[in-house]
């Protein structure tokens, strides 16, 4: 028979082995989902049967609020794939329309916006927006990636705002909203204001934002992936990117926050959400202030997004 001391040692060894195996399994990264409280007015939506046809649009962004039946075709939406699930529980009311004409009826010109005039309206040129002010480089370890999705109203039309008026947003990293008529040329910038790249999002592009203190190796990894995926991309530092997840990929209505560069996750996100916006035009923009490197064509009209690895350029 084993002595009591021998049994105690064996039990202690088994517990230590189980604890070690559990800690090793806990290091894998999984994408978190997050329903961000939006500062817009929201309408709580009653879940209904989606089988009925959508009611015909009456020419307004949203139906009349006074008739509850008008919300019959709006329901709780859950979008899933193998990497993440996104829950969209509310309908966001679009911002109030200003006394400005909407896109499609305004030419790009010096009177309104030519991408060259009165640029300090959006950005005063301060180096603070693209310069690291921290003593250490980011990221902080062991933080999961996070996917945010804004439910953009089906008939929402973003305003084009002339340079004589300022544009403010209720989110540090907006994924839709009013913007300038002249969108940015695609490529990498020393700094690009959000009033410009929001218009690029509307054309189906992917915007890579990174905190100025992000480690250069991580920036280069994400830059390489994005540049090899599609022509319609924007890369710019931005000091309002969260320090705990210093790299963000933004598409129309979506944001993917990352603490580290997960190549598979990033490519899956780009393939799913790029080129899915209100206006999917591949035409290059007019604004090019502080453009460092123009984007290169990957495939005509970005038909083939994120080609196979052996076809990509600038691999690491």
TrEMBL record:
Task: Give yes or no: UniProt keyword Signal.
Answer: yes
What keywords does the record list, in alphabetical order?
Signal
Q: Which domain of life is it from?
A: Eukaryota
Q: Does the keyword Signal apply?
A: yes
**Region forming the signal peptide:** 1-22
Q: Which GO cellular component does the record give, naming just one?
A: cytoplasm
Q: What is this protein called?
A: Tumor protein p53-inducible protein 13
Which species is this record about? Answer: Acyrthosiphon pisum (Pea aphid)
């Amino acid at each position: 028979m084993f002595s009591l001391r021998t049994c105690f040692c064996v039990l202690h060894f088994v517990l230590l082995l189980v604890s070690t195996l559990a800690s090793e399994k806990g290091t894998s990264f999984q994408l978190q989902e997050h329903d961000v409280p939006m500062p817009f007015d929201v309408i709580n939506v009653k879940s209904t049967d989606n089988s009925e046809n959508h009611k015909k649009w009456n020419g307004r962004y949203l139906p009349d609020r006074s008739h509850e039946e008008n919300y019959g075709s709006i329901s709780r939406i859950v979008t899933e794939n193998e990497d993440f699930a996104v829950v969209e529980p509310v309908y966001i009311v679009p911002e109030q329309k200003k006394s400005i004409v909407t896109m499609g009826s305004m030419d790009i010109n010096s009177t309104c916006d030519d991408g060259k005039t009165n640029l300090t309206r959006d950005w005063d040129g301060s180096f603070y927006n693209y310069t690291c002010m921290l003593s250490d480089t980011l990221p902080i370890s062991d933080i999961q990636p996070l996917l945010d999705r804004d439910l953009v109203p089906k008939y929402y039309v973003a305003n084009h705002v002339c340079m004589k008026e300022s544009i403010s947003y209720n989110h540090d990293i907006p994924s839709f909203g009013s913007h300038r008529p002249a969108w940015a040329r695609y490529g990498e910038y020393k700094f690009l204001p959000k009033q410009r790249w929001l218009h690029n999002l509307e054309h189906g592009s992917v915007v890579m934002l990174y905190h100025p203190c992000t480690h250069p190796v991580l920036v280069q990894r994400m830059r390489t992936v994005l540049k090899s995926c599609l022509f319609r991309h924007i890369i710019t530092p931005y000091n309002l990117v969260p320090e705990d997840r210093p790299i963000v990929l933004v598409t129309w209505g979506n944001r993917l926050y990352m603490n580290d560069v997960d190549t598979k996750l990033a490519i899956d996100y780009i393939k799913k959400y790029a080129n899915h916006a209100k206006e999917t035009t591949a035409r290059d923009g007019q604004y090019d202030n502080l453009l460092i490197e123009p984007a290169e064509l990957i495939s005509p009209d970005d038909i083939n997004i994120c080609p196979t690895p052996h076809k990509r350029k600038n691999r690491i």
